[in-house]
Amino acid sequence: MLAAALVGPRALTAQAPPAVPVPHVNNSAARCSGSSGGGATLSGRMLGAFSISYDSTGTRLEAAMLIRGQPGWYQHGTGRTTPWPPSLPSRAGDKVPQLSGASADTFALVFDRANDIAWMGGQRVDLHGANVVLLDRADGVGGPPEVVSILRIDPQIGPPFAACERQQAEADDRIRDALLSSPVVRAYMMP
After folding, report:
1. What is the pTM of this model?
2. How far, in Å, CA of 118 to CA of 109, rounded?
3. Rounded mean pLDDT of 81-95?
4. Which long-range contacts does 12-16 make (Cβ < 8 Å, 24+ apart)?
5. How far apart (Å, rounded) are the C-alpha atoms in residues 133 and 62?
6. 6-15, 40-49, 93-102 — which is least confidently predicted?
7. Where do the domains of the chain lie?
């Protein structure tokens, strides 16, 4: 309640302005916002990890990391797993990390949105605005793991979702389609 004010010899009581009707706003799109990450087996030779964000304006691919080795390389590992989130070294000037990604055996695929970097098997990869990293020789056969390409594809992979429950199922197909739209990624994924 507003306080009374004294003006001259009489007190005036201030009154609140009349209520203005507020239109009903559907907040379901606003409630369905955030980010998600995960990993997937893409073929007998390839694993991938991704990070997406979604809100009322659409779904965006923040990062995708694809790693390749000899057939079945990730099935013949040590049987251990990488702790999540992995402990990663930082450089002077790095921000507090915002991590998403996945791991296969002891090979971590991590995207750090805050610092615009990816970590692939302990190797720091500066993205410089790119959102796809392709790594070969994840198993070390033929030499140490090597980043073969860093590129940017259109990050907008879908429209806003009507419900959060549909977001993940639809995102998997949209990520695949977005990646395959790049000739570089298509060539990399060929056996």
Report:
1. 0.73
2. 7
3. 71
4. none
5. 12
6. 6-15
7. 29-74+96-189
